[in-house]
Amino acid sequence: MHRCDPQTSLRLRVLLERYGLQLALLDDAAAIPGSYWGAHAGGDYDEENAVCYLEILLAQQFGLAAQEICADMDAWGYTFRLGSAYAWFTHDAEDARAWLLRNGLITSQGAPTWRCRESRA
Questions:
Q1: How many C-beta neighbours within 10 Å does residue 86 have?
Q2: Whose CA is closest to 84, among 16, 76, 54, 50?
Protein backbone atom coordinates (compact mmCIF):
# COMPACT_ATOMS: atom_id res chain seq x y z
CA MET A 1 0.00 0.00 0.00
CA HIS A 2 1.26 3.48 -0.80
CA ARG A 3 1.73 5.89 2.06
CA CYS A 4 1.87 9.66 1.87
CA ASP A 5 5.61 10.19 2.32
CA PRO A 6 7.02 13.73 1.90
CA GLN A 7 7.70 13.30 -1.84
CA THR A 8 4.20 11.92 -2.49
CA SER A 9 2.70 14.65 -0.32
CA LEU A 10 4.38 17.31 -2.48
CA ARG A 11 3.13 15.69 -5.70
CA LEU A 12 -0.37 15.50 -4.23
CA ARG A 13 -0.27 19.18 -3.26
CA VAL A 14 0.70 20.15 -6.82
CA LEU A 15 -2.01 17.91 -8.30
CA LEU A 16 -4.72 19.25 -6.00
CA GLU A 17 -3.73 22.88 -6.58
CA ARG A 18 -4.75 22.41 -10.23
CA TYR A 19 -8.30 22.02 -8.88
CA GLY A 20 -8.00 24.85 -6.38
CA LEU A 21 -7.87 22.34 -3.51
CA GLN A 22 -5.51 21.93 -0.58
CA LEU A 23 -4.10 18.72 0.84
CA ALA A 24 -5.08 18.07 4.45
CA LEU A 25 -3.00 15.45 6.24
CA LEU A 26 -4.67 13.44 9.01
CA ASP A 27 -3.40 11.09 11.68
CA ASP A 28 -3.70 7.43 10.70
CA ALA A 29 -6.59 6.82 13.13
CA ALA A 30 -8.53 9.99 12.22
CA ALA A 31 -11.85 9.84 10.38
CA ILE A 32 -11.66 11.10 6.80
CA PRO A 33 -14.13 14.00 6.41
CA GLY A 34 -16.47 13.64 3.43
CA SER A 35 -15.31 10.10 2.69
CA TYR A 36 -17.35 6.97 2.14
CA TRP A 37 -15.19 5.50 4.90
CA GLY A 38 -15.89 8.41 7.24
CA ALA A 39 -18.61 11.04 6.96
CA HIS A 40 -21.39 10.62 4.37
CA ALA A 41 -20.22 12.09 1.01
CA GLY A 42 -23.64 12.49 -0.62
CA GLY A 43 -22.86 10.90 -4.00
CA ASP A 44 -24.66 8.09 -5.78
CA TYR A 45 -23.42 4.78 -7.19
CA ASP A 46 -22.49 6.23 -10.59
CA GLU A 47 -20.62 9.13 -9.03
CA GLU A 48 -18.70 6.83 -6.66
CA ASN A 49 -17.58 4.69 -9.62
CA ALA A 50 -16.54 7.84 -11.51
CA VAL A 51 -14.52 9.02 -8.50
CA CYS A 52 -12.70 5.67 -8.41
CA TYR A 53 -11.96 5.89 -12.13
CA LEU A 54 -10.72 9.48 -11.84
CA GLU A 55 -8.58 8.50 -8.84
CA ILE A 56 -6.80 5.96 -11.05
CA LEU A 57 -6.26 8.53 -13.81
CA LEU A 58 -4.95 11.14 -11.36
CA ALA A 59 -2.58 8.67 -9.69
CA GLN A 60 -1.05 8.04 -13.11
CA GLN A 61 -0.41 11.79 -13.42
CA PHE A 62 2.21 11.60 -10.70
CA GLY A 63 3.85 8.33 -11.58
CA LEU A 64 1.78 5.46 -10.17
CA ALA A 65 0.79 2.77 -12.64
CA ALA A 66 -2.89 1.89 -12.83
CA GLN A 67 -2.06 -1.55 -11.43
CA GLU A 68 -0.42 0.02 -8.37
CA ILE A 69 -3.28 2.32 -7.39
CA CYS A 70 -5.77 -0.43 -8.12
CA ALA A 71 -3.88 -2.79 -5.80
CA ASP A 72 -4.15 -0.09 -3.11
CA MET A 73 -7.90 0.22 -3.78
CA ASP A 74 -8.26 -3.54 -3.36
CA ALA A 75 -6.31 -3.39 -0.08
CA TRP A 76 -8.55 -0.53 1.16
CA GLY A 77 -11.58 -2.77 0.72
CA TYR A 78 -13.15 -1.53 -2.49
CA THR A 79 -15.05 -4.29 -4.26
CA PHE A 80 -15.84 -4.54 -7.94
CA ARG A 81 -17.91 -6.99 -9.97
CA LEU A 82 -14.87 -8.50 -11.67
CA GLY A 83 -13.04 -9.15 -8.40
CA SER A 84 -10.40 -6.41 -8.51
CA ALA A 85 -10.14 -2.70 -9.15
CA TYR A 86 -7.79 -3.24 -12.09
CA ALA A 87 -10.10 -5.75 -13.79
CA TRP A 88 -12.97 -3.28 -13.33
CA PHE A 89 -10.87 -0.34 -14.64
CA THR A 90 -9.74 -2.19 -17.77
CA HIS A 91 -12.88 -4.20 -18.59
CA ASP A 92 -16.00 -2.85 -16.89
CA ALA A 93 -15.73 0.89 -16.20
CA GLU A 94 -17.42 2.29 -19.30
CA ASP A 95 -20.19 3.81 -17.17
CA ALA A 96 -17.67 5.60 -14.93
CA ARG A 97 -15.77 6.93 -17.94
CA ALA A 98 -19.05 8.12 -19.52
CA TRP A 99 -20.01 9.91 -16.28
CA LEU A 100 -16.67 11.74 -16.23
CA LEU A 101 -17.02 12.70 -19.90
CA ARG A 102 -20.61 13.90 -19.39
CA ASN A 103 -19.51 16.09 -16.50
CA GLY A 104 -16.51 17.51 -18.37
CA LEU A 105 -13.94 16.03 -15.99
CA ILE A 106 -11.96 14.07 -18.61
CA THR A 107 -11.35 14.47 -22.33
CA SER A 108 -12.48 11.94 -24.92
CA GLN A 109 -8.89 10.60 -24.80
CA GLY A 110 -9.27 9.98 -21.05
CA ALA A 111 -7.04 12.81 -19.80
CA PRO A 112 -8.12 14.93 -16.82
CA THR A 113 -9.46 18.35 -17.82
CA TRP A 114 -8.41 19.82 -14.45
CA ARG A 115 -11.87 21.29 -14.05
CA CYS A 116 -14.09 20.94 -11.01
CA ARG A 117 -17.56 19.53 -11.45
CA GLU A 118 -20.30 22.12 -11.48
CA SER A 119 -22.41 22.20 -8.33
CA ARG A 120 -25.77 20.42 -8.47
CA ALA A 121 -27.41 23.17 -6.40
A1: 20
A2: 76
